[in-house]
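Task: sequence design from structure.
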């Protein structure tokens, strides 16, 4: 995947501040809907077709209003699930910020296992319609949080957008004391108060994981497991 198909604005890994990594893998998904393995390339393509303009040979996304470069972003291309440990350990070791594009949500498990070796404990900010906190079945997209318990600090982690938990997941949420913010909480308390609460919870080493199904299906209909009454693109962002 060439850099011009993503928000990348530099051509070398060495000088990059942030590194985009595509992981086109859905082998740990149990969803009847398929296609998340196509997401990395589609995100790249679509991201270059929205809110873009060129002025004086400068692409808008690469610069601030004053014309100063924000961050140097390099697109590493796509890697396999098996390559995650080696790739992410190097990115973290080199002091760069990884931006991963999945793939089913279980890739978060392998990424955090890799970066958690140097950044424990991790405060996980987890946007999802589902808690992904099953413990009776392991190593798939529905057990991400339970699989990551050795690497995250549940007391400084938060789930946002949750609205479709199973009973087992509700019990695990209570047992391990992780904070849950539903779309209904955000509607009731407002965005500002919700943000203040999140910032009061999270710690120093923060990993943000965003599953598109945290959004209402009216805004993201193509996800694997859509759930009504999700986050609103106007009220909640």
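Answer:
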């Amino acid at each position: 995947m060439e850099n011009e198909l993503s928000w990348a604005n530099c051509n070398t890994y060495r000088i990059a501040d942030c590194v985009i990594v595509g992981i086109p893998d859905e082998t740990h998904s149990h969803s009847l809907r398929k296609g998340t393995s196509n997401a990395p390339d589609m995100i790249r393509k679509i991201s270059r077709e929205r809110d873009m303009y060129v002025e004086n040979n400068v692409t808008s996304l690469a610069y601030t209003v004053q014309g100063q470069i924000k961050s140097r972003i390099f697109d590493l291309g796509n890697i396999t699930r098996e390559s995650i440990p080696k790739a992410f350990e190097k990115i973290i070791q080199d002091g760069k910020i990884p931006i991963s594009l999945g793939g089913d949500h279980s890739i978060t498990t392998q990424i955090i296992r890799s970066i958690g070796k140097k950044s424990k404990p991790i405060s996980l900010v987890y946007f999802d319609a589902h808690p992904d906190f099953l413990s009776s079945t392991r190593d798939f997209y529905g057990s991400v949080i339970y699989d990551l318990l050795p690497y995250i600090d549940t007391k400084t982690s938060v789930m946002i957008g949750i609205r479709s938990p199973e009973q087992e997941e509700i019990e695990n949420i209570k047992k391990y004391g992780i904070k849950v913010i539903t779309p209904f909480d955000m509607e009731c308390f407002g965005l500002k108060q919700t943000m203040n609460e999140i910032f009061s919870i999270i710690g120093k080493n923060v990993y943000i994981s965003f599953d598109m199904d945290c959004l209402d299906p009216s805004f993201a209909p193509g996800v694997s497991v859509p759930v009504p009454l999700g986050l609103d693109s106007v009220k909640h962002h």
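The longest helix spans residues 107-119.
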